[in-house]
Design goal:
Uncharacterised_YugN-like, about 30% strand, 7 strands, about 15% helix, YugN-like_sf, TATA-Binding Protein, about 100 residues, seven-stranded antiparallel sheet, alpha+beta
Length: about 100
């Protein structure tokens, strides 16, 4: 994770307006949002492994990331870039057997 200095840090705004403006630039609401905050995420590469994340906290109102009627006001935190590493294929550390799977059922 690489933290970025930004004038966006500390900026407040309406959630719906921020979502619409950032959505037009390719950002999406991160899947980790809850009623206290979340993030706007933008993939920086074609493999979706490097992301620019704009975290925010709710300062007032109720956040519903899927509603057009959310009255939440948000304050942006410090943006950062993160790199997801996706492991492909079976996990070499997992030990399972057919007999164990049958018994566990």
């Amino acid at each position: 994770m690489i933290s970025l200095d930004s004038k966006l840090e500390g900026v407040e705004g309406g959630f719906v307006e921020c979502r619409n403006v950032l959505g037009a630039q390719g950002f999406s609401i991160g899947g980790n949002w809850d009623y206290a905050g979340g993030s706007f995420d933008l993939a920086l590469d074609r493999r979706n492994q490097v992301w620019l994340r704009l975290p925010f906290g709710v300062t007032s109102g109720n956040l519903d990331a899927e509603s057009e009627d959310s009255n939440a006001l948000i304050r942006f935190g410090r943006p950062y870039v993160l790199h997801h590493i996706y492991k492909e294929g079976p996990d070499a550390d997992v030990q399972s057997g057919v007999a164990g799977a049958l018994v566990d059922q």
